[in-house]
Amino acid sequence: MKIVIERFDRKKHYKQDYDIKKEDIINKTLLYALLFIKQTKDATLNFTASCRSAICGACAVRVNGHAVLACDTKNERSTWNV
What is the CATH number of the domain that holds 37? Predict the structure, then answer.
């Protein structure tokens, strides 16, 4: 599974690709996948999340052009563009 994340630093915007084995995140949420990337692949990845119950909206992101909550979005695609 591929996750493409739009990132930026003080100088530029760029996209970064992460390849994850589907079995590592099967039946999990996008928030879980982001946490997995942060813990195992890239500690510099930062994002917000709070309740993990689809109530607060802190984990709102755009996925493939649609606004979603990362804690409430399951891995139904082979690629996520975040």
Answer: 3.10.20.30
Return d(Cα 22, Cα 1) in angstroms, integer.
5
Containing domain of residue 7, as a range? Answer: 2-81
Q: What is the pTM of this model?
A: 0.86
Closest by CA to 9, choosing from 44, 57, 37, is 44
The pLDDT profile of the chain, 82 residues, written as one tens digit per residue, is 889 999 998 899 999 999 999 888 888 899 999 999 999 999 999 999 999 899 999 999 999 899 999 999 987 665 677 6
Largest pairwise CA distance in the chain: 37
